[in-house]
Task: structure prediction
Amino acid sequence: MRGIVLFAHGARDPEWAQPVRRLAGLVAAADAGARIEIAFLEHLQPPLEQAVAKLVQQGIGDVTVVPVFIAEGGHLKQDLPRIVEDIRRTHTHLVIRLAPPIGDSAAVLEAMAAYASAASHGTKSAK
Amino acid sequence: MRGIVLFAHGARDPEWAQPVRRLAGLVAAADAGARIEIAFLEHLQPPLEQAVAKLVQQGIGDVTVVPVFIAEGGHLKQDLPRIVEDIRRTHTHLVIRLAPPIGDSAAVLEAMAAYASAASHGTKSAK
Result:
């Protein structure tokens, strides 16, 4: 069993987490071989360390952190690698991988492009 | 001719804009009936007012602002409607529409879910 942590920025507004939760549900439904957790950099709970610890407690030895970020700025270039290094020091037997942010995926950008175009036509598919 | 502004958060790191630019290229390629501009809330240029003004100068009377945000927090609930109200006061003949954020789109979330699952398998399609 693999582990996936969907790691998002977070915001003061707790509703901000909703699409991240929906995304976790979609990944869980599509990937029976993975346990899915969500985690946030700021404001919302849990932090990444805690989400990873939860997977480790379930006996999972292989975790991929997927940044649910549009793009790579200081948070992903500096903050995230530092957090992951700390996690590696705590869980020395864990294999932890860091994926590029979702905005790096051509398929994700294509879906966003189709959404933007549909939204400007005012069609139902905009939602 | 419609106008679409892809409105993203922005970051101190200028490289942060790259996926937003790629996205603009994809929308432009797929939607010949629209002029595409990008705009940022913070740190990067141009701001939304300026991107909209550029479209208006080209004779475009119908602009859709598409928030390239994972989710709706204070920035989209408070800041963006205020900026759009100011734009409406400046360009009284312009029809300006505000789309829900891209993280509201089921198709976008599905593409993100497929990406997350592929990334945890370490497959090429992760990128």
